[in-house]
Write a structure and sequence with these properties.
It is a single chain. The chain is of the alpha+beta class. Helix content is 26%, strand content 40%. The chain contains one helix and five strands. The strands form two sheets. Strands 1-2-3 form a three-stranded antiparallel sheet, with helices on one face. A two-stranded antiparallel sheet has the order 4-5. The longest helix has 20 residues. The protein is globular and about 35 Å long. The protein starts with a strand and ends with a helix.
Length: 78
Amino acid sequence: MASVKIVLRKKQNKDGKYPLALRITKDRKSSFVHLGHHIQETFWDEEKGRVKKSHPNSVRLNNFLTKKLADAEDNLLD
């Protein structure tokens, strides 16, 4: 059984932002797929795994994250 979760990686870039990634865990081994978006740590809700509403593009980013998560879960089921 594999699991997928959206995480905020802890490696900061030059602008002080952190990358968003999909963490795929299978057989106790994790691999990360970076999504190409970076946000500040203060805008990330760790419990919900979503961007907080205080971020200017939170609705758009959360829709993007939901779509990527659904695509990854569909691939795992196949």
